[in-house]
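Form 7-S
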Amino acid sequence: MSKATAEYVTARAVDLQAKSAAAFKIAVSNNPDRVRAMLNLWFVPKFKPMFYNEEERYSKVSATASGLDDIVLLDPSYSSAVTEPGGQETQHPVRMIDIDTKNLVEYPNIGPRGQYCILSHSWKGREVNYKYIDDAKFRAFNQALAAAEADKTSPKKTATGPAKLNDIDTIKTQCQQDIDEQVERIKALAEESNALSDLGLSDASDIVKELLSLRVDVKTLEKGDDGEGGFQKAKDNLATALAARDYGKMEEEVFDQFLRDTGLEDDKIQVIRGITGNVTEQLSLDVTKAEETLNQEKRKQSEEAEKLLFFERHGHIRDAIDELIGRLERKKSVTKVEKSIERSKEIFNNYPFQKTDKRYLWIDSCCINRSDDGEYVKSISAMGEWYKNAEFCLIHLDTRRNIPRDPLVDWQVLKSTIDPPRPNIAKFKDIADYKPEWSTRAWTLQELVMSKTTYYVNSAWELLPRPVDTIGPWYHLSPFVYLYTSVDTNNPYSSVLSDGGGEKLLTGVLDNSGIKYRLKELPTEEKSITTAQKLIATLEVLDFRLPRDIEMETARSRITQSVYLAVSGLTASSENLVSDGKQLLDSILEVLQPYLFGSRVYSLAERARHAINILLKCLVNILEVSIIRDRSDVATFGKVQNLELWRKGLIRSRFSTHNAMSLLSGRNATVVTDFAYCLMGMLGVRFPVFPAEGLTKALSRLLDEVVISSNDVSVFNWTGKQYGSHIRGRSLYPSLPEAYNIGKDEERKKKRDEKLTELVQLERYEKMTDFLAISGMLVSAITFVKERQKKDIPLGWVMEILRVIKRAEFEQLRPHITNIGKILKYIETAFDSKSAAMPQTANSPSTSNLGTPTMGVGEDTSKQAATSPSLSSFSSQIKTPSLPKDLPSFKAPKFGRKKTEPETAPPKASSQQSSSRAFGGFKSPSLKSFGRKESETSQANATPAEVGTPTNEPEVASLSSPPATPSLMISDAQSHPLDNEVFSYIKRIEGVEGNEGEVKGRNVPISANPELPGELGKVLAEIPEREFSKPHKKSEEFDTMISPNPIIVKNSGIEGLFDIQRVIVSMAQPEKLRRQVRNAVSPHQKITGWCVISTGFATVMVSFSCPKSILAKELDIVQAVEDKVLNRKNQETSNSGEGPNRASGSQINQSEAQKVETAWQKSIKDRLKLSQSDKDEKSTGPDDSIFKEYEAEGDRVSRMIKFVQESDLTEVAGEWVLARFSGVPGAKWFLCYLELGGSGRDFYGQRIPTDEIDFHNASPERGLLKYWEYYMMEKKYRLCSILQKLMDSKDWGNLKTEMGQNLAKRITKEISGDDDDEEKRRNDSDAAESDDDGNAESSLLKDLGGMALSMAGAGLVQQFYEWRAERLQKSLSADVLKKFPAHIQTAMEALDDNKDLMPSMFHSAKKVHMF
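Output:
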């Protein structure tokens, strides 16, 4: 830029800035309104949000709208066929038979003027095809032409000439001519070859029949009576049986070894064998049967050797007879075509299908030109859509094909020597029992599922009627109409259907109108179907027409459009013409007028729309049950039970691939590739067919199209080691459709796995049930102790039960859990209910406000019994905190006497009472367990005979105290009547208590069927048992499994996101596998074997088939893992910390206990003169010897879990892993060989075909089970400790209460005093304060202070025990789990909750290219 230019630009900028400033000042600064408007324009949004109350908003809308006003009308030209893979071009067949003219028509007019149906049948030999029809028409034309030429040259000319035949009559005539020609040829050959003499016939009149009968006998020998046997078939069956037996023996040996490796005993192994029977014996029986069948076939052939030799000598006659049989089959095929036309025409005429100008029938055998490859390819790929768009499908349930004697019967019927065979099926309900061969064909699966409506005829072409036949197309349309009417919730005429008479009212309008309608009332077994027919006729008169190509996604919109069109036609103004539909609509509206609710005024169009909706709703309500029941019946004999949405009538294509593939099991096809091609319509895909490619390639192309179009992951949910695909890059696909269904061998293995899982988990379930029962009892007892004041509770019972439960194992307690639960339940109910509301008599003193008083021994016990019958028996059961038996008795100091005054001796106690020492008339709780974890109850060593309680001191007993409820610490001398029986029963629990109060060994015998003794059993008979059910495992089922992640299908493989789980693989018979690897001739040779797959938590055994190159690498890895992970000696057991933590830190040592000890505690010890030290006992919890048995297995599983938790996936490359598609519920795990890609960051994989890997039926690892058993024992021990601490807390609380009561009474007595004592003190000597008096008062104060300190200390101990019990209860599981390694805790919780141990430590969403 030049300098002059720069100056010019600068000047212009300055000038422009000045002008802009002046304009802004004039326009904005001097005009504030403009400024305000500008700011509003800039900062005030045009859209202002409005907030609604959703409930009020929608309630107002629903009050005025029916729910159908929001449905958008589709374009009239819309067709669901546009969404199909083939579009509109091939949605109808290109060639069909006109039903009315019986001619074969090309490019028929299908649409508003035409409709068609399809025949589903089984091919039986030689069928009439398009080429034969074309040749027959050509011959007929030539014959007609020759006849016309002959007529011209004939002196007698005919006026009309030869009659022109339709195509069906033409081929019928041609077939008969062919048969006659072949009969003459056979007779001529028989005469020329001297066959008459060989057969012993004198003339050739019956030669055809004799030769045909002879040929049928020979074919029976070759194929059997049913066409599926014969000599060759018997040989094949024997070879198959021998191979299965040899394989079964190997499999049984491997499985038995696997069972022994899991720790099962021989008796349990026999149980598993018994589930499926002895496999070897069963397979040996199959071999024996196959050998017998083969011998029978050999005998038959030897007996019929002459017949076989005859056709060997006369081969030309054999060929001629076979040709005659083929022509007889073609003749029967012509009859099939003729009869199918008649039945189709009958259905169109009698049932409510729309009236059209043209009606057609399509038959696959004669409407496809198979000589034209292009037409054949298009027809096969589009056949699904043709069935889908047909009005109905006529299904011919014929007799079985390939029956050798059928040609002879056909010949005899043709010659009228016998009557036609009787029909094979008489009624529709007999179809399931007959089991037609039609249900076993591959193509009929598509023909049944994709058809709108089906009609059935038997072998004699007799229609098999059922009630729903009469509703015609409404059989298909009703489920969609139901979707439409379900949103019509505010129809003003809806009350007409609520009183139950709406159907009769609506159908009566048509009957009373006098209008003639096309549909006639047909005889039917259900009156509801007759009503439905009249409603359909009513809708037809109203010109209501539903579209033919309706689908679930478009049902509401398409039906709304049909209702709109019908209403528009009925309400259109027409002065000169009043149609029947308008007259009928007026009559319907008049009848419905009384049922109109609301004050709103509706227009004629609105009332007409609501009236049609009421008719539709009434119709579907009638048909719903009948249609669902009929579709269920059809699904049963059609073998499509697992298509749930099809049974509801909602979909006919785009099913789950796994479900569709599984339906092919047990079906057959003439061409093997048809197994893949017949599913194109059901899966909603298309691709060119090429029968020569083979089934594996065809199946691979089919699955490619499914994955590309829908991302359906169920494609990969197949199993079977023999079904791996050999196609490069398609290891994720199977080679045969049978892989999607469980075969006989797979089913047997599945049963064994389920039984193995049941046996391995049986003990776990039993222990879990036992723990739930025991914990339920203890938790209930804990709650009871917390909420109740343990008055009159038989503590002796509870303490004895606690002692038993705390130390015993589950196997020892199992037979007694029910009775122990009854005893505890009895304590909770009976004792609580009697002590909660205790009546008082007139003689009973009132309760003192100083605390809960006690009952003196001198008080009349009979009076107490009269007051409350239960008290006298219950009070003796109260077991207060005890002291060692050898301690001397300590008597409380007496107020009001001098130190030198003699001590008054208490009255003698009974022998029972003298055995216990008391402090102030009560026992003191033991301090042995204070400040540490509980191990044994303070009364663990007390015998049942020491349950009694001592009496009070005389001065306490002399006080007047109300007997409302006996004190916990003061009990009657009389014991409970059931004491002896309860303690006797607990003592008799075998294997619980040893000589020294310890738990016996684990293998002690357990008493069978324990019963409560005598009177105790009667008392507890009414107490209900606690019920604990085994958790129920729900099976997972998924209708669709669409991957949210992209799946890329390439020629070289399939790429997607996978979850990768590292596993530990152990090979069965590894040396045998190594020999097979060495002897393999190529790296790609498949080797079959068995392996055990473990995730560290669970283990499964599967058989596999793997290339030699991959197996050789895995065998080396398996050996290394076994050496370093599985079989490594536990050298760090004591320092690894991987077992339960048994450190001494769990107890409070002696020094810590001394820190807790305070002055009041020493005071009590000094006063009680304890003879034994307060040294803590170690709380060992469950027996440590039990843990030592589990430690080795636990350490092994701990190493396994650490191994599979490898965080770096590159370290896993080169191993066999488990893989599944990520983010898809229901995607199954499969075994996969994982390796690093070329870049070092990519991963390649190759699927290894195996049996089903089902972790729902997996067995937990043995070490994990051992840890879990110890975990359950520890939890049980902790629960007992919680209850014991709560009871100790209550004991100390009651001790504090009693000490306070006695302290208060003595102070009160000292203050009040006796008058004599007061007078004596006044008349005392002048030395009022002597040294003795001073000493007495000092001693009194010390006694009072000691008692006060003891009372306060007891309160502190009570609070400590309550706090300790509450903390243990809140963190029970967490505290116990801390004893185990962190990486095992989650699995133990899963076992504790009875959850499946599914793989959970996988690498999620890793990109892998699967070859």
